[in-house]
Write a structure and sequence with these properties.
- With about 300 residues, the chain is α/β, with parallel strands linked by helices.
- Helix content is about 30%, strand content about 25%.
- The protein has eight helices and 16 strands.
- The chain has helices at about 15-25, 60-70, 120-130, 135-140, 155-165, 185-190, 235-240, 280-300; strands at about 5-10, 30-35, 75-80, 80-85, 90-95, 100-105, 110-115, 150, 170-175, 195-200, 205, 210-215, 220-225, 225-230, 230-235, 265.
- Strands 1, 2, 3, 4, 5, 6 and 16 form a seven-stranded mixed β-sheet that branches. It has a four-stranded parallel β-sheet with strand order 10-9-8-14, with helices on one face.
- Helix 5 runs parallel beside helix 6 (about 185-190).
- The longest helix is centred in the C-terminal third of the chain and has 22 residues, at about 280-300.
- The protein is elongated and about 70 Å long.
- The two termini are about 20 Å apart.
């Protein structure tokens, strides 16, 4: 019988790669499986990730992390985990036609942003050119004193527009589907910040030479950058298969060591808490890896 893995890491974004480096350096038997959909790969250039003056492209950062993981024998296996089951002290995971058995699982599957109405090819091009951005914490500095649209409404749209107001005086909040869903307090906050409130619906966004255009019932408006504030889909299906508990927002519920409510299941990154920061995901991953090592050692000593 094949010996079970010590840990199956699902997702090779910054969190999964960081944890894999830590776990491999503990001489644990691990497998890293990735479907190839890390949001980090979409980042044209991150400039607030410490250690990279001038910034670094998301694809380059991931490549460096993969290279570092490979130094310790970790290869990224491309594939999708279709099913996760817990039986006794072990998990089984179906990856295509292969079934893996593992003592622990680390979920670093992240989230998927809800995009604005837009052709997929145009969307990806707009992201690469900085005409469409998803993380004001990451790159709000880059839109300093530019004309910015926030596509959203309600609390999420209001908060994002207010946040971006510290970078530029020219912020418009545009409802994606029709009239805005704003209460009096939200409208008051937006008015005090001199943020334009524009009803939709907005048609498919399109790119100009150096601007992004938002079609609206009263005509088309051009902006230097648009930020969709339309929420995201949390990739938590595998956790639900083993009945892990979720927060009200839909993220996995964890303790301070990234343990979920299911023994042997750990998580890190945006699927655990949606801060959307590479450094935060990496920090959680290191905490999770340490907990996995310690919990395994408490069951069976990890002597060389």
């Amino acid at each position: 019988m094949t010996k079970p893995l010590d840990c199956l890491v699902i997702g090779a974004g910054p969190a999964g790669l960081t944890a894999s480096i830590y776990l491999a350096r503990c001489h644990l038997a691990i497998r890293l499986v990735d479907a190839g959909h890390s949001r980090a790969a979409l980042i044209p250039r991150t400039r607030n990730h410490a250690g990279f003056p001038g910034g670094i492209a998301g694809t380059d950062l991931l490549a460096r992390m993969r290279e570092q993981a490979q130094e310790y024998g970790v290869a990224v296996q491309h594939g999708t985990v279709d099913r996760l089951v817990k039986t006794g002290d072990h998990f089984t995971a179906d990856v295509g036609a292969e079934t893996l058995t593992t003592r622990t699982v680390l979920l670093t599957t992240g989230v998927v942003n809800n995009p604005p109405p837009m052709d997929q090819g145009d969307h990806d091009s707009a992201v690469s050119r900085g005409l469409l951005r998803y993380c004001p914490i990451c790159d709000g500095y880059e839109v300093t004193d530019k004309r910015v649209a926030v596509i959203g409404t309600g609390e999420r749209g209001t908060n994002e527009a207010i946040y971006l107001r510290m970078y530029t005086r020219d912020v418009s909040l545009i409802a994606p589907a029709g009239a805005h869903a704003l209460d009096d307090a939200q409208r008051s906050r937006l008015a005090e910040a001199h943020i334009a409130i524009i009803d939709g619906p907005c048609g498919p966004l399109r790119m100009g030479e150096a601007t992004i255009h938002v079609p609206l019932p009263d005509g088309e408006l051009a902006f230097d950058t648009a930020y969709p504030a339309m929420g995201s889909v949390i990739r938590s299906d595998l956790a639900k298969m083993v009945a892990a508990e979720m927060t009200d927002e839909g993220c996995l519920q964890t303790d301070q060591h990234q343990r979920t409510t299911i023994a042997g299941l750990y998580t890190a990154g945006d699927v655990a808490k949606g801060l959307d920061q590479i450094s935060h995901a990496m920090g959680e991953a290191s905490v999770a890896a340490a907990a996995i090592r310690n919990d395994l050692a408490a069951i069976t000593p990890l002597f060389r």
